[in-house]
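During the reporting period the student researcher (J.K.) took over the structure-prediction task from the postdoctoral fellow and processed the backlog of single-chain submissions. One of the processed entries is reproduced below for the supervisory committee.
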Amino acid sequence: MSKVTRGNKRREEEESNLIEKVVYINRVAKVVKGGRRFSFSAIVVVGDGQGSVGVGFGKANEVPEAIRKGTEKARKAMKQYPLVGSTIAHTVQGEFGAGTVLLKPAHPGTGVIAGPVIRAIMEALGVKNVLSKSLRSSNPHNVVRAAFEGLDQLESVEQYASRLGRSAEEFYADYSVRAPVGAM
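J.K. obtained the following structure tokens:
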């Protein structure tokens, strides 16, 4: 087995563990001389279920091709976000265009209280307990980007606690989660 095929197999194994969610598919039409030409755009979220997630927008003449393009872009755009057990560390609010998304941490057993767009992002991220509210716009493009703006504001528990002048142990106690070894 050559090095090239071994590297491709490893990449395929890593990618097979990823969670892919199609958030939204839109059919768009372009009016031309002979009638309408239809094409499709897709919003795809890809995550590993352990704190890493990305979003991609794909456009093509057929739905599967648009989803494939969106998936590729989402894999390239994956970023790691800090989680506390099965929730986020603190409340964040992201805004993009007319869309605003509020994300709040929740206690174990609460579940993902969110609309379909934010639910897909949270499930791909690996968050099992979170409260969210989508304000103003319900446009999936704006909601997705606003949610990622909010996720970009997330800090680790230690950073957030030091910014507020509290100890990280208080936050870990709030979420009924043990602090990671060497965290404090």
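The committee noted the following: The first strand starts at residue 19 and ends at 32.
J.K. will present the remaining backlog at the next meeting.
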